[in-house]
Amino acid sequence: MARKTGSHSDITGPKIRAAAERLFARHGYAAVSMRQIAAEVGVQAGALYLYTPDKQSLLAGLMRDHLEALIASWKTQTPASHPHDRLRQFVRFHIGYHIDRPDAVFIAYMELRNLEPDRFAEIEALRRSYEAELEAILRDGQAAGVFELADPRLASMALIAMLTGVTNWYREGGRLSRAEVEELYADMALKSVGRVA
Amino acid sequence: MARKTGSHSDITGPKIRAAAERLFARHGYAAVSMRQIAAEVGVQAGALYLYTPDKQSLLAGLMRDHLEALIASWKTQTPASHPHDRLRQFVRFHIGYHIDRPDAVFIAYMELRNLEPDRFAEIEALRRSYEAELEAILRDGQAAGVFELADPRLASMALIAMLTGVTNWYREGGRLSRAEVEELYADMALKSVGRVA
DNA sequence: GTCTATACCCTGATAGAC
DNA sequence: GTCTATCAGGGTATAGAC
Question: Which terms are listed as keywords in the entry (chains A, B) (predicted)?
Answer without folding.
Answer: DNA-binding, Transcription, Transcription regulation
